[in-house]
Design brief:
The complex is a heterodimer. Chain A is mainly α. Chain A contains 12 helices and no strands. In chain B, a hairpin with a 1-residue loop joins strand 9 and strand 10. The longest helix of chain B is centred in the N-terminal third of the chain and has 17 residues. In chain B, the strands form 2 sheets. Chain B has a 6-stranded mixed beta sheet with strand order 6-7-8-3-9-10, sandwiched between helices. Helix content of chain B is 39%, strand content 22%. Chain B has one domain: P-loop containing nucleotide triphosphate hydrolases (Rossmann fold), CATH 3.40.50. Classes of the chains: A mainly alpha, B alpha/beta. Chains A and B meet through helix 8, helix 9 and helix 11 of A and helix 5 and helix 7 of B.
């Protein structure tokens, strides 16, 4: 399993899975603390019609046009939510739910009706990505990591998601202080000069970029799971945000690696002859990690638990 | 209850002092804030003298906190001008420290007491400067002033309400400001904390700083404050506590909701 076949068939999907998971989990930490976890969910739904429309217009699955399509869809979603809220006098959460599910449904319908048979873009792909197909044809073994010709044959999704994951890390390091401050205490943050509105907006944009980049490779199931499960489990491991972020990266990576291996080899161990979806398994593993953290992690607090007197 | 002679005496003593004091610490002109159709704060003017201990007083929903937040630019105002020590708000922002209502943040947030106090040094630390020993020591000294030095490494969710309020005050101290704006600092805190907080505020005044609190406990106004601003959406009265915190003004502020029996029990200026 660790030989050339592994490098050719499994190394790149695992790396792409890990990087996708990390890129989504990093902004997810802040979204959860801001009680905006569903924004991640929402974004991953909204991008679908945007990407499909971008494809129908350009006829290609280039990342730039997909990103623009997703951004356009996000703008439409925001307008739609405002319209539903005002015209229907509905509370914001419900308006969001209505807007995002209907936009996702519209995306699915568009996909089914349009001719996307020439490219790898269909409903199944949208949900589960195509992680297993992102293999490294030109690899001949570990030594290919140092072979420029072989490296040129890496699936383009890998450098793309690597760049996005790196961007997330850099943004978080540079804006750590204002991001943490405005997440904890927005009013105070404003008085010391943190542009709190801009911080909140930039966080959602960063999450959207991570979602679009990961969506392409791994589908919306993982995106939704990775925004929420690793950060939520990490919160239960520690009472310090710095440490929570590290745990979320560990859990995201663990989910990706374990999920991929279990999907590929797990069914064989039980005598089945088909592997199951890696994306689905990765999301499931992240859910199991969260469940274990809920019963066993050191810093679980019951909501409304009595505090020390003093 | 108009003790005219005393009032005149107090007033006569006050007017020249205010002149000599120069610019007000905080001056609000025609502040109007609206959350919906009807205004929460309507055309309020105020002039908080430098080196005073001032209180904003009024019934629930009178717009006290809103007025404070609008002065700080946290909530948008429809109209109004804010001047701090004679300068426009933006230029003087660094001279202001702010203590929000305790209930306005999530105390389950994963951070420690010392980290919250260090947030008060944000202006100095900026985006990337490292927290050095002197920063940490400054933060610890602020915690010590509110009697919380032993709790520096605690997660903030493990504190009682009073302790949380003291941590917020320590963060404001770390800002090293000249004007301290506090939103209901005594709300829901234990007696020991209230004592500790008022002692710190009085020490600030002694150090020539200005303190302005949104305050709702009428019983302690005369003991704690020397300047009051009575509001109920509009400004009802403003001036030295000794002449302004009167039964008539309170009735006007609370719109008769305050039973006269209640007012009789209050400690009012003699």
């Amino acid at each position: 399993m660790m030989g050339s076949a592994f490098v050719q068939l499994s190394l790149t999907p695992i790396l792409i899975g890990v990087l996708s998971a990390i890129a989504c989990a990093l902004p997810g930490n802040f979204l959860i603390l801001r009680r905006q976890a569903l924004i991640g969910d929402a974004i991953s739904h909204v991008v679908l019609p945007g990407i499909v429309v971008a494809f129908l217009i350009t006829g290609a699955t280039a990342s730039m046009s997909m990103l623009l399509g997703a951004a356009g869809a996000a703008v439409v979603a925001v307008l739609l939510i405002e319209a539903i809220k005002r015209l229907g006098r509905i509370e914001p959460g419900a308006a969001m739910g209505v807007a995002f599910t209907s936009m996702f449904a519209a995306g699915v319908l568009l996909l089914e009706q349009s001719d996307t048979s020439t490219v790898h873009l269909d409903v199944e792909h949208a949900l589960m990505g195509n992680l297993e197909s992102l293999i490294w044809f030109k690899a001949r073994g570990w030594e290919s990591l140092f072979d420029p010709a072989a490296l040129a044959g890496l699936p383009p999704e890998l450098p793309r998601i690597a760049a996005v994951a790196l961007l997330m890390v850099l943004l978080m390091l540079v804006f750590w202080r204002p991001l943490k401050l405005s997440t904890f205490d927005e009013g105070f943050a404003g008085t010391v000069g943190v542009p709190t509105g801009l911080m909140g907006f930039a966080l959602v944009v960063a999450a959207a970029v991570a979602a679009v980049a990961a969506f392409d490779a791994v589908g919306s199931i993982i995106v939704i799971a990775m925004f929420i499960c690793p950060p939520a489990a990490a919160r239960l491991m520690t009472n310090r945000l710095e440490v929570q972020i590290l745990w979320s990266v560990v859990f995201a990576s663990l989910s990706a690696v374990l999920g991929y291996v279990l999907a590929g080899y797990g069914p064989l161990w039980f005598g089945a002859d088909h592997a199951v979806s890696a994306a689905g398994m990765i999301a499931a593993v992240s859910g199991v990690i969260l469940a274990v953290a809920c019963v066993a992690a050191p810093h679980r607090t019951r909501l409304g638990a009595p505090k020390d007197a003093g | 209850m108009g003790h005219t002679v005393l009032e005149l005496a107090a007033d006569g003593g006050k007017a020249p002092a205010a002149e000599a004091g120069g610019a007000a610490a905080l001056q609000l002109a025609e502040m109007t804030v609206s959350y919906g159709e009807k205004p929460a704060v309507f055309s309020v003017d105020a002039r908080i003298p430098a080196r005073s201990m001032a209180a904003i007083i009024g019934p629930n929903g009178a717009g006290k906190s809103t007025l404070l937040k609008a002065a700080l630019g946290i909530v948008p105002r429809l109209s109004g001008k804010v001047t701090v020590f004679g300068e426009p708000f933006r230029q003087a922002r660094h001279r202001i420290a702010y203590v929000p209502q305790r209930a306005s943040v999530d105390w389950d947030f994963p951070t420690r007491v010392i980290d919250v106090v260090l947030m008060g040094l944000y202006r100095e630390l900026g985006l990337l400067r490292l927290v050095r020993r002197r920063h940490r020591e400054a933060a610890l000294a602020c915690l010590d002033r509110v009697g919380m030095a032993d709790f520096a490494e605690r997660q903030i969710g493990q504190l009682s309400g009073g302790q949380q309020q003291r941590v917020f005050l320590a963060r404001a101290l770390a800002q090293g400001a000249d004007l301290y704006l506090l939103d209901e600092p005594f709300a829901g805190v234990d007696a020991a904390t209230e004592k500790a907080i008022i002692a710190v505020l009085k020490s600030l005044k002694e150090a020539q700083k200005t303190v302005l609190c949104v305050h709702h406990d009428l019983a302690t106004v005369i003991d704690y404050f020397d300047h009051v601003l009575l509001v109920n959406v509009r400004k009802i009265a403003e001036g030295p506590a000794a002449t302004t915190f009167t039964a008539d003004n309170l009735q006007a502020t609370y719109g008769g909701r305050l039973a006269s029996a209640h007012i009789d029990q209050l400690k009012l200026p003699a």
